[in-house]
Fold:
Amino acid sequence: MASETSAAPEASPDRAPGEPAPGRSRTLRQLLSYTLIGGSGVVLDLVAFLLLHNTAGMDEQFANVLSTTLGIANNFALNALFTFDRRDRIVVRFLRFYAVGLAGIVLTNLLFLVFTDALGFGADLVKAGSLPLVLALQFVLNRKWSFA
Structure:
């Protein structure tokens, strides 16, 4: 006799077998939208970083703070409108979103300390390499806290 926890989930009469549950579909759509919007923020962040650091000669950590802040503002506006469709408590949500963004800044700056300062990797490579890790961390935190 199989226990209830080991039984396979039954297909809902409203969806085909193998089709994701509505909550799961929504999460996947949000992740896709968040990733696409995040891509625009990444491009903005990276271009601003390269200009500030390589062209203007700004310290990589300070350039990272400014470029990431620009990307955060871009991503907040687009995610509030399209990904999470939330327009209430906009100031509170932005402050939470920015706090999550600060976590990304701190993580990236720690990676600079380890990989650029201690191991000699180029700052551009470290910045680019940090982006997927930061994106994943921030999606989870923003979905659960900023836009909950």
User: Anything to note?
Assistant: The two ends are 40 Å apart (CA to CA).
